Amino acid sequence: MADQKKLKKSAAKAYDKAEDAVTDARAAVAEAKRRAKKLAKKARPSVKPLENALDDAASGLKDAKKTAKGAGQASKTSSSTPSSTAPAEPRSIYTPPLPEVDETTVQLPDGHDAHVDLHAQTLVALRALARTKGITNVSRYPKATLIEKIEQA
Predict the structure, then answer these.
(1) Is 10 contained in some domain?
(2) Is 25 contained in some domain?
(3) Does 117 fall in a domain?
(4) Range of 108's domain?
(5) What pLDDT digit, counting tens, does each position of 63-119 carry?
(6) H or E segment at 117?
(7) What distance in Å separates the CA atoms of residue 130 and residue 127, rounded to the nearest whole number?
(8) 97, 87, 91: which is closest to 55 by C-alpha?
(9) Helices 123-132 and 143-152 meet at what angle, rounded to 10?
């Protein structure tokens, strides 16, 4: 009888441990699903719309080239008569504006002139350039003010 009690007691302990393991496994699965959902939100957006836009732009460019080539051949064949139809405008393709560059002419030590982008220069180089241009108290000016002073000098 004592052996049966021990067996029942050890079986109950094993059952409790198994229940705890199942509960832990379910919690781990829920945590994994939560993390997967979080990672899916952080994933990059689909590039399909961008690919479609690129294909549209490429086809528009091809159409414009064909139209321009056709107009060029037509003007060669009828060079004696002015063409009454203007060549078709290619589809507008957005190109961002180029950044504005502030350049100034600087005389190098070897005597040659060089164009220098002032915004690309370090503050130390700008101070040296300002001193060569005769600007005083250069160490008290911030970079933007120093560039303005150099341009005015």
Answers:
(1) no
(2) no
(3) yes
(4) 103-152
(5) 777 777 776 666 555 544 444 555 555 556 677 776 666 667 766 667 666 677 788
(6) strand 113-117
(7) 5
(8) 91
(9) 30
- Among 31-35, 49-53, 99-103, 116-120, where is mean pLDDT lowest? 99-103
> Does 82 map to a domain?
no
The first and second tokens of residue 76, run together, are 């060669």
Q: Which of 122, 119, 139, 120 is nearest to 131 (CA)?
A: 139
pTM: 0.32
**How many residues would you count in the chain?**
153
Burial (CB < 10 A; 0-12, 13-18, 19+), residue 152, is exposed
Residue pair 74/83 in contact by the 8 Å Cβ criterion: yes
Cβ atoms < 10 Å from Cβ of 88: 13
Q: Binning pLDDT at 50, 70 and 90, where does residue 31 land?
A: very high
Could you tell me if 57 and 34 are in contact, meaning their C-beta atoms sit under 8 angstroms apart? no
Q: How many domains does the chain have?
A: 1
